[in-house]
Structure formats: structure tokens, C-alpha cells
Amino acid sequence: MVRTVISLDPEDKAWLDRQARRERVPMTRLVRRAIQRLRKESETNPSSFEHLLRETSGLRDFGDALTYQRKLRGEWDKRK
Length: 80
Description:
The chain is mainly α and about 80 residues long. The chain has one domain. The chain contains 4 helices and no strands. Helix 1 crosses helix 2. The termini are far apart. The mean pLDDT is about 85.
């Protein structure tokens, strides 16, 4: 395991200590368990933005993006 130092608000630290005593486990175990839960939840329920990126990736294939962008901007210049 890797050691790390974190800063907590005093109220959060007090709650964590009380919870650890209630469950009769080390505080570090509670922290590891919370991180594992958060990670699992994040991996199984990606944000809507991440979901949107995955769902639309490769949807449109127009070749080189820079060439396409320059073509579009060239159309803007023609309007003037």
C-alpha cells in the first residue's frame, strides 16, 4: 500500500473517528472503503459528459479535422 497525507475539516475527522469506534475498525479502513466505493460508483455510472463522449465517438468520419475546419472557415470568408 502507498501512504498518503490528507487534510480534513475538524468536523469530518471527528465524525470519522466516531464512526471507526462504532464499527470497531481503524479509521484508515473506513477511508479506504469509502474511496473504493466512490471509485466503483464512478466506474459503473460515468458522468453524462463522459457517456456522451463514448456514445458519439467516431459518429462522423470526415477525414482530417483540421482540413475540414479550414474548409468551413473558408466558407465564412466567402460570405463577406
